[in-house]
Amino acid sequence: MRIIETNNFSFVSIDILKATMYKFQFTSTIEDLLEADEAFRSEVFARPALRQSATFIGVFFIQGSVFTLSGVFSFPEEGFMRISLFLLVIGTIITYYSAVAPWLSRRRIRMNNAATQEVSLIFEDSGVQLDIQGVGSFVRAWGEMKYYVDTSKGIIISSDDGTLNCLPNRVFPDKNEREAFRKYLVINDVLHYEVKLADYISAIFSHGP
Asked: How confident is the model at residue 38 (pLDDT cuts 50, 70, 90)?
């Protein structure tokens, strides 16, 4: 097996690439995790500007519904009350996924991770071996790798249990090596997640961030 490490890389053909081993060792920080979380959310769900607009709309729906239901706005028809209840539910959902969920995610990251952690990721024929200092070692088969997201901060790999592993851009010496590793994931049947507006809408009303 040919070993390719991040500090000594050369492009190889697909047949050889399939039998290649990548090894990444780096220090992960809270800032890395927060940036990865935001980059993942921006790519898979919506960018900050869109989330801020959604939050504004959600809060507007909630306020209007509360005023109507509390009698501040008086409407004679029962249909207005039903519409208000509907908008209250929609506003609450939108506000949660656009504002509350990201805040909770950042809070969990800060509470559950050390300021710095030594991380080792080894990609080989059988799958991926992950070692995190102070946490433990984990092994995943390629079949457990659901998809990857190519973000501005790095490459984020999602497992079928929802776990995310991020390779920050700094572990790749240059763009060519980063692109070659991305192709390596595709060759090993890790799909590239490409976002469509319909995916975001579906996520809001079903799965969430």
From this structure: confident
Q: pLDDT tens digit string along 146-179?
A: 888 888 888 988 888 878 888 999 888 888 888 9
Q: Of 171 and 10, which is predicted with more confidence? A: 171
- Residue 1: per-residue pLDDT: 40
The secondary structure of the chain as a DSSP string is -EEEETTB-----HHHHTTEEEEEEEEEEHHHHHHHHHHHHHHHT--HHHHHHHHHHHHHHHHHHHHHHTTSS--SSHHHHHHHHHHHHHHHHHHIIIIIHHHHHHHHHHHHS-SEEEEEEEEETTEEEEEETTTEEEEEEGGGEEEEEE-SSEEEEEETTS-EEEEEGGGSSSHHHHHHHHHHHHHTT-EE----HHHHHHIIIII--
CATH architecture label of 2-37+116-207? Roll (2.30)
**Res 19: pLDDT:** 52
